[in-house]
Amino acid sequence: MSTPTSSAFDLDAFGRRHIGTSPSDHGLMLAELGYDSLDALMAAAVPTSIRMGEVLNSAIPAAATEREALAELAALAEQNTVRTSMIGLGYYGTVTPSVIQRNVLENPSWYTAYTPYQPEISQGRLEALINFQTMVTDLTGLDTANASMLDEGTAVVEGMLLARRASKSTSNRFIVDADALPQTLALLESRAEAVGIELVVADLVEETDVAAFGEHFGIFVQYPGASGRVWNPASVIAASKAQGGLAVVAADLLALALITSPGELGADVAVGTSQRFGVPMGFGGPHAGYMAVRTGLERQLPGRLVGVSKDAVGAPAYRLTLQAREQHIRREKATSNICTAQVLLAVMASMYAVYHGPRGIRHIAGSTAAKATALAEVLTGYGLTLAHDAYFDTIRVHVPGLAGNIVERARALGVNVWEAGDATVHVAVDETTTAEELSLVAQAFGLPERTEVAIETATLPAVASGELRRTSGYLEHPVFNTHHSETQMMRYLKTLADRDYALDRGMIPLGSCTMKLNAATEMQSVTWPEFANLHPFAPEADVVGTLGLIEQLETWLAEVTGYDTVSLQPNAGSQGELAGLLAIRGYHLANGDTERTVCLIPSSAHGTNAASAVLAGMRVVVVATDELGNVDLGDLRVKIAEHAESLAALMITYPSTHGVYEHEVKDITQAVHDAGGQVYVDGANLNALLGFARFGDFGGDVSHLNLHKTFCIPHGGGGPGVGPVAAKAHLAPYLPGHPMAQRADHSGGVTHDGGPVSAAPYGSPSILPISWAYVRMMGSEGLKQATASAVLAANFVASRLREHFPVLYTGENGLVAHECILDLRPLTAATGVTVDDVAKRLVDYGFHAPTMSFPVAGTLMVEPTESEDLAELERFIEAMVAIKAEADAVAAGEWPVDDNPLVNAPHTAESVIAGEWTHAYTREQAVYPVHSLVRGKYWVPVRRIDQAFGDRNLVCACPPVEAFA
Ligand SMILES: *Cc1c(COP(=O)(O)O)cnc(C)c1O
């Protein structure tokens, strides 16, 4: 072949837009490092022992242009058939208000933001999230809600685990409502089994004799039931609590607008999903789950919790609160392994409540119930009988022997209803359901064509007027009663977005988080109805296009990681870890190795690793790291010998969490295999390896990847994510399956038969086109060039900053991988200036701080990624050098230790104009430390936030408006 190999830098190549630095920039940067080509740099950086050959990645087609990729996606979308879904079971049609779609979901100010760990530059999304928490506590009638959970099914599991932690009962028994959603039941079963919880699934009714179940630590109730049944669980809850249990209730937020809240019925914990608050079904996700608890349980909450604190001048400010519960601090003792959650979707759901307000939400709930009532009346009038007389949006119709026929007839008329056994058809209506669609459903049940189904919205439907009629108020805070015109809503969203720093303002060099470009073309198809409006349990024939996309993506990911099969089901990296460890567990059990439960984890590992191991029923044994940041081989051998009989797995991150390519990785994996253990390679740092080495080739048995890092799914302010789990063939049978999956088989022609880890069979499929488009438009050569460019950028930053801040760890040639750790401890010792001061001062310079104090306390970990251009890298370097000079000035006594631009950072506009200026430095030094800021300044809305105050004075709902006066 004489055609030259295509380059990611060709004029029509997408790679040229994705990679921020040009070939000529590379020349300058390589000269700084003393290499004459990217190839030479990578040859020196990546250990030869693990480098892959040249011919791999054959499964990935040559790079497509942006237009070609969109055309291919359109062709895949066309293979899907969007029927009206009346399947329900936790997923409903909903109208995404256009003002929310355009200004949140499609707005990079919202979708490219990071998790709000730096609260001063995250006040907008923190307010949106506290609105979410307030909405959830109001509707559930409980006291404190988090933001957010991954989906309803996993939220129920977290509720069960919370109940076990908080209950005084020593019993391992948990009582489960048989009328739970089927996917929830499947999740409960697999997750309970791993941690030794015994489930008792029971038909619960008001008269149930709860004492007959014996001692138990908790009870779970679905409200309304999966069957649509609305009943009063108060007596069952009270009886369970009387013997020491906690009550977990999964409740439909929309139904709660009409019926008594779980809190008022005695529940300790409420969980569920907020999907039907304006977030499309998306073939299963993503959307935000929720959890709320009664007072006294807030410290047990898993996931992230937004609270109110105050800043340095006493102004109210939001922040993530009670962080001490989280796995990056508590590790194996954390309340949960959840890290990335579903922030963008929680923001959308909260804004749906802000836009509609209490009257609007009540109206939507009332008309939904009215539609169900109208259909029920027509069907019963025709002589059919229903399974329950009290329902909200779902009716089950008794049709012995005819269920299959009716479902088929409805399908032919364009509506998917659910066959709940051969004698029962299940129909769920929603906000979008029309009278015409109800008429088609009636026709499917045998009524004459065009039977009129009159929706009566003037009178309250039965469910809203019966015994469970809701009498308490909700959404009374002004935020839910103000922004009801589109102009107001647009401006509210803009006001909040303006308070935040996202990738649309500048680089976010967060080590371990890979905040790279989320290209517009990649995002484009997420809202296409053919992808967005599919129910996760729709028949296979309706979702052929998405299944095809999934199969291709699975194949590509298997190829680039050197594994045999991939599951896209896990909804975050943490869930991929859990799925992979559960697969290892399943494998050992199948081999009769019931004793293999020890999981070795290096002390430097990401906190989710340890938390996930515990959830997989394993015992964590910590392995030391040496002074170079590598796994201490000596200690590893000692630990392996000590636990030889009980060794289940080693979890190792590659490149290491210190951003270094460890040369001994093959010896490490070999030692674990020799002892009969399995190797889990945490693949969150794949951006340093893609195209150059594969986990499967150097001894990995299973890995998770983070599509929201390496593969361009935006962080969304803290989610959504996708954490695919990839494995060798011997683990395939134990990867997550799902009782409702459209297909049993996966890439590699294998089936995955383990228990599910997500509520939906394919996790969050509606965002998979993002990663698909990235791979498709980069091609294997482009992916390689991205990796090399990312490694170059990190080494360039390390090289330029080295004389100002020691670079903590490097590999053999003095090179780092895709990130570098700047050691601030000498600076702190010499000047008193802390990592926190530098991070906050970076805000004044217009930057998001790098990762703080992970994996080493007192350091900053910088990951520029390949998407930043040279000018932005230079701007960051300039800021860091200037900040070093400021710290030196403090050390030299030019500025007092307690009054200088660093300790006072960040500076608001108000702080430099209000009153008399009494500081030792000037106003210009405060807010315009470099001149370029004069024309492009991000103005932080609050001063430095008092973290301890917020933990001591816990406020996790919208504060009174006067607080901000
Ligand atoms: C980000 C990360 C994780 C966790 O991923 P989530 O999607 O946030 O759950 C795990 N390990 C490493 C090394 C990471 O960087």
Structure write-up:
The protein has 965 residues and is an alpha/beta fold. Among the domains are: 249 residues, Type I PLP-dependent aspartate aminotransferase-like (Major domain) (Aspartate Aminotransferase, domain 2, 3-Layer(aba) Sandwich); 107 residues, Aspartate Aminotransferase, domain 1; 203 residues, 3-Layer(aba) Sandwich (Aspartate Aminotransferase, domain 2). It is 35% helix and 11% strand. A seven-stranded mixed β-sheet has the order 2-8-7-6-5-3-4, sandwiched between helices. Strand 23 and strand 24 form a beta hairpin. Helix 13 packs across helix 14. The longest helix is centred in the middle third of the chain and has 39 residues. Pyridoxal-5'-phosphate binds next to helix 19.
| Number of separate strands | 27
Question: Count of helices?
Answer: 29
Strand order of the largest sheet: 2-8-7-6-5-3-4
Q: CATH superfamily assignment of the domain at 105-353?
A: Type I PLP-dependent aspartate aminotransferase-like (Major domain)
Oligomer: single chain
Which regions have little confidence, pLDDT < 50, spanning 5+ residues? none
**Ligands, deduplicated:** pyridoxal-5'-phosphate
- Give the biggest sheet: 7 strands, mixed
The shape, in one word, is globular
Overall pLDDT confidence? 96
CATH T-level fold name of the domain at 105-353: Aspartate Aminotransferase, domain 2
